[in-house]
Amino acid sequence: MRNQPLSRRRFIGSGAGTLAFMGLPRAQAASGLPHHQPTAKRVIYLFQSGGPSHIDLFDRKPSLEKLHGTELPDSVRGGQRVTGMTAGQKQFLVNKPISPVLPRGESGVTIGDLLPYTCKIADEISLIKSVHTEAINHDPGITFINTGSQIPGLPSLGAWCDYGLGSPNPNMPGYVVMLSQGNGKNPGQPIFSRLWGSGFIPSNHQGVQLRGGGAPILYLNDPAGIDRKSRRKMLDDLAALNRIRLEATGDPEIATRNFQYDMAYRMQASAPEITDLRDEPESTFALYGEDARVPGTYAYNCLLARRMAERDVRFIQLFHRGWDQHNSLVAHLGAQCRDTDQASAALVIDLKQRGLLEDTLVVWGGEFGRSVYSQGKLNSGRDHHGRCFSMWLAGGGVKGGVMHGETDDFCYNIVKDPVHIRDLSATVLHCLGINDKRFTFKFQGLNHSPTGVEETHVVHDILA
User: Fold this and answer.
1) What's the total number of domains in the chain?
2) Which of 74, 236, 321, 429 counts the most CB atoms within 10 A of its CB?
3) 249 confidence band (pLDDT: 50, 70, 90)
């Protein structure tokens, strides 16, 4: 049976509406947004895929020096679930940090020696040491923190932001994604496109992935013999045909497709300039490191993130694989930190120097942390740990030089100010002027929010 034609209200609600057919940019924000005065205009989310070790990087516990090599007490574990990779171990031996974690800067924010460049921005960041999640394996964990559910299929946080706030730059997508592979665990855990998908939100809000390598965006140039005027005419004619088809079938994806055609047309003029680094001075590469010259590296992607922030891309997300040190802990964790440390800190410094940090929220962290007990012999590796882990934020209305939350002497359980990953997402949205529970999309009879139906708490203690 054929679908009924779209009513005017249903057509506009499909996410693109007549503006897409006319080749015009989408509205700047959904109705009623922002809910309050935002402190951030944009987000750069530096996602460290695999689970960075909070024990070796951020959560300072001098007591672990004496406890090293001793059995983790049953009273600390509390019968909690562990992964199949260590569940059969006969011993759960406490493994101290492989390198010192010490107070840094004037504020005393604790950061490990493995992150010497991040140590230099200690006074710019808010370190949350009490993040937690129910997930203990990678795919449900990374799905949970990015979409608010361990079950695939829901919209990503970036898609929600693009849907709610729109893009200030009509010539670039509101949500851009870049991937890189580290020298830690190689290959790292798979990264699936659904992590930046739009779920039930109209698909024109899904993240647009830039490729690694020499050509981040394919087909930016028209074929020989096609000029801009001809391309515009072709798209207008295609839009007219698609309008007829839309009226006949009622399929909102037709409207979305036309929107994407038009976005691609506008990107042909804007994207080449963003990815052309010839205008960057040598001081930029001294700041980010020489890897920033190499397309597809984490440092290169951090530099592109700054260039996109300058051009008002709303949500920029970097996924960096390799933070999964089940073995070769010392070598692989050190290599992973060398891949990311300089560029992560450089991005914060660069944004601040350009006056962009005050309204750009930078988020750094992964899907969970690592176990205090060793996987295998001491210093061999660490297993997944979701009971507590560390993430940091900077800029965009967040205080610098503060720490929030505390864990026990084993970095195993939270003893003060827990922050669920939904609370973290609620805080990111709050900085953008969005109340997560008032921001909804109706699907299958339910009013869905970015953080689900559970109660959330914005982490006001870290906000300026």
Assistant:
1) 1
2) 429
3) confident
Does residue 22 fall inside a structural domain? no
Supply the pLDDT for residue 29.
65
pTM: 0.90
79-99 pLDDT tens trace: 888 899 999 999 999 999 999
The model's confidence at residue 8, banded by pLDDT at 50, 70 and 90, is very low
The answer to whether residue 224 is domain-embedded is yes
Three-state secondary structure string covering the chain: CCCCCCCHHHHHHCCCHHHHHHCCCCCCCCCCCCCCCCCCCEEEEEEEECCCCHHHHCCCCCCHHHHCCCECCHHHHCCCCCCCCCCCCCCCEECCCCCCEEEECCCCEEEECCCHHHHCCHHHEEEEEEEECCCCCHHHHHHHHHHCCCCCCCCCHHHHHHHHHCCCCCCCCCEEEEEEECCCCCCCCCCCHHHHCCCCCCHHHCCEEECCCCCCCCCCCCCCCCCHHHHHHHHHHHHHHHHHHHHHHCCHHHHHHHHHHHHHHHHHHHHHHHHCHHHCCHHHHHHHCHHHHCCCCHHHHHHHHHHHHHCCCCEEEEEEECCCCCCCHHHHHHHHHHHHHHHHHHHHHHHHHCCCHHHEEEEEECCCEEEEEECCCCCCCEEEECCCEEEEEECCCECCCEEECEECCCCCCEEECCEEHHHHHHHHHHHCCCCCCCCCEEECCEEECCCCCCCCCCCHHHEC
> Does any domain span residue 7?
no
245 domain residue, yes or no: yes
Q: Which range marks the domain in which residue 320 is found? A: 42-462
Where residue 268 sits, what CATH number does that domain have?
3.40.720
